[in-house]
Amino acid sequence: MDLHDEHEIEGEPARLSQQSQRLELITFEHDCTLRDEPHYLTNRIESPRSCAFRFREWFLIDPRHPQTVRYYTSSYLLRSELVRHIKSRHWFMIHPFSRFRFYWEIWLVLYTYALMLAVPFTIAFTGTMRRENYVYFIAAGVNLLSTAEIVVNCLTGFSTDQYYQHVRLGPWDVFVNYLKGMFLIDFIYAFPASLFARVFIRNEAALQVVLNVVSGLLLFKVVSLWKIWRYIINIFERFRFGMINYYKLRLILISGLFIHWCNCFYKIAATVVEDPQYGEDPLWDEHVKFLLNIDNGMMRRYGHCFSTVLYYLFVMSFGEIGIPTTVHGKVLGAVCIIVGICFQLYLILQFFKLTTMTNSTKRNYAESVSQLQAYMGMKQFPKEMANRLMFYYEKKFEKCYFDEDKILSTLSEPLRHQIDDHSAARFYTTVPVFKDVPRSLLLALVRNMEKEIYLPNDMIVKAGSVGSWICFIHTGSVAAYTQSGKEIFHLYDGDHFGEISLFLKNKRLLNVIAIEFTQIFVLRRKAFIELVPGENALYQRLEEKAKERMQQILLEEELYKSHLLMVDGNAGGGAMTD
Q1: What is the pTM of this model?
Q2: pLDDT (average), residues 346-363
Q3: Helices and strands in the chain, H and E counts
Q4: How far is residue 6 from each of residues 10, 37, 163, 339, measured CA to CA in Å?
């Protein structure tokens, strides 16, 4: 079978059946006898219970962060990134997938959305807010919070790699990347322009103009809204709220923000001084007079704008103020009605999109899960087996169901090969034994590999069985046991096992057990012999590794058997003494 992306599995039932017959698969409760490696941070801070250790851990990569789960798919990758960060000269930097950054992003969602509500409101009611000095208190708070945001962003690493597995932590690199992005907008928010204007500008008219300009510049923060959606996706994935609910929430937030902005800009537009030659309209004049009167309070005037704008947007009429006779009122009303029509079309399209999504991949996944549950109920599977099946389904499809055969059948052969080569490139760059091997040979090898998936405690290789293939670990980790039950090593991403069977037609010497969710690629001896000649560097590397590993296994097995005999002898001697 060709190698495809890690979420795409072809011919799964038939291959699982063959695999089960070939290996007599069983599960094996992996109770690790090798010393678990302590958290690498203990090399810097001795006590894991100390406040310093826990504080420092908040800024390192978090295994529960949604981006970590997505891009660091095995304990090996996770630990490698953790060690790299701690050993780095830039250990004081914040990892973008850290626990601190996750909760900081929750705060940024609330903070940015509140700003998007407050800024247009401040512009619309600047007179009242200046009189009550609200505008200066709000400005001071925004300046402080934006300064904190700049500091955190300058200390948070970033990655330009599409797989996010090469996070850059250098302070200068981080600052340059930030400078190319949102730094200027954040700096505008952090700079206390309103407070400086209040201190140094005495002329009220000039102060009003400066404050309006400053408030207008703050509207550029709207470009950061795209980050909010990414942060909310992380929150929903972390707490398993379901992505359909995310799209519903996004629609509510966008609609609320849009209506709020319409209210504020309607108030600004309606209170522009009219030219008397446009005519008189008592109802419209009374409406504008009410909005201009500061004594009516901000919330009353905002409510008045709200009811009027709702008429424009949804009823497409002019409500209590009637059809304005002034040119200004007619133009403003017509613009609002046109905007309302566009907004209603947007809502209709979004509802249609939500309905379509509900009936697409995620719905298919839900239906397949329902069928699986019915099947397990009919077969009366025990709870443990049912849980393992559900775990497998979730990992395999990642809560999205697709028909890979149907998708690939619609593609041309060159395009299918291009997809295979892209997926293969991601795989063989992680395997050290493939270093400096020609790309053409690697692609040929990968195209002859078969993909297999194992759950924790699944037995991948059974000692004593006949094998003729080598296994390469794509993601995950496995434990290796001798026939007598001695655990001798763990293998991780990029490692391989079963190389002895490529050169010797004897029975397997090891039991290999999956420690976590593990994906491996299997290369059979026949394909290996056909593609890799004996003088090839890859052939020689694997042959040398096979000899080395065989010696290690036989030595470990002999030592462990001697240990067991000694233990049994001591036990027998003790019984005779008694």
Answers
A1: 0.71
A2: 75
A3: 24, 8
A4: 11, 28, 13, 45
